[in-house]
Amino acid sequence: MEKETKRFPEGFLWGGATAANQLEGAYNEDKKGLNLADVLPGGKVRLEIISNPGFDFEIDESKYYYPNHEAIDFYHRYKEDIALFAEMGFKSFRLSIAWSRIYPNGDEMTPNEKGLEFYDKVFDELHKYGIEPVVTISHYETPLHLIKEYGGWRNRKLIELFERYATTLFKRYKDKVKYWMTFNEINGATHLPILGLGFSPKNEDVRLQESFQGLHHQFVASALAVKAGHEIIPDSKIGCMLIFAPVYSIDANPENVMHALREEQVFNYLCGDVQVRGEYPAFSKRYFRENGIKLDIHDGDLELIKQYPVDYIGFSYYMSRTEKKHKTEEEIGAGNLIGGVKNPFLKASEWGWEIDPIGLRISLNQLYNRYKVPLFIVENGLGAIDKIEEDGSINDDYRINYLREHIKAMAEAIDDGVDLIGFTSWGCIDLVSASTGEMSKRYGYIYVDKHDDGSGTLERRRKKSFYWYKDVISTNGETL
Q1: Is 379 annotated as catalytic?
Q2: In this structure, which topology does domain 13-462 adopt according to CATH?
Q3: Count of helix runs (H) and strand runs (E) in the chain
Q4: How distant is the alpha carbon of residue 365 from its chain centre?
Q5: Distance CA 277, CA 305 (A)
Q6: Domain ranges of the chain
Q7: Sign of the alpha-carbon dihedral angle for 85, 86, 92, 93
Q8: Spatial separation of the C-alpha atoms in residues 106 and 186, rounded to whole Å
Q9: From the candidates 24, 132, 141, 379, which is the catalytic residue?
Q10: pTM (2 decimals)?
């Protein structure tokens, strides 16, 4: 074991992260309504659907398999899974609440008691082991009724419906949950609006206009959630959640440097500026003008956003992004979902995601120096194919190496002066991939016997990384 001399702060929130739609299953049990994830098929076709316009949001079981319907059955196995998290020593567990479990259609006046009871039981089980819940209110699972009848977040009506939903959660769980986040990876919506905003643009011409209008509605809804959360749970911490990827210029050519700067401003900082600083940044005016974006902003919206900024920034970090103003098809980094060109200095995962631990240190410094609020890494991890050996072991040293280097980068950033409050690695137990619906793209410390075709026993099995992460947590990051 390698000894790491830099210590993490006392009370650092080590743990793991998941999303309801990717692990719960029980998609139609206890009066739960359908949501976006329930109509997304598994396999490579999913990425085509979420990347292109025209999806009809219908289930066709004669044509597709829908892995989220059962997922890994956390809904019935949560006690077993939480016991495993406790065995690793988790201090925190990030999960999301399925909106359509609480309000099956999304627009009811009264919530579904069965749905509320389920999360009561989950939170009680977590607290039994001293694990702090970190809850995402909306994580890629807009109720299907709100998509079909309202057009998703293009419709301002969703502000009111989200406020009702969030307020219901705060009132119900005020004694059980302190850490909240409003919208998962909110800034990713302009790339894949179907996931975060619950609509599929008719064509590319309207994507940016509709996406930024939908984002404005979410900014207002987030501010209202912060207001309600602070009133109902005075000691609550309510954060935003960004997908963050530092943007490098491919070289020192000023044209490429300027292009990289503009890409970084719009993708990395626009949403953060609104939710943390409480106002649209100066650069947004020119960007909106040049892209023909005209926001419908109602009286009082900007004042509300200014008055109720978030308390901290939760963010996911998987990769950096390298940019060049004029790029050819051959130069594009195909695996990097957020664009850019291949970086010659970086290796990539089996799914083409470039691996850049130093980029995490850069990200932490950039975010903290810009916003001066606490940071929380709520997603980071390596998706890989795991092999079960003849003796039943799973030797995922590649995952350990990936996480070790990223945790080292976190320690360096803390030494740089960054206020980092926690780390919940993504997919602490194997779950359904959001982008491809695959089970074979595994992130977990815990292997789940479930496969891309839906077969498997759902048996849980500890990987080598399970024991490694247990040591990391027990020594507060000293043993890596």
Answers
A1: yes
A2: TIM Barrel (3.20.20)
A3: 16, 12
A4: 20
A5: 9
A6: 13-462
A7: positive
A8: 19
A9: 379
A10: 0.97
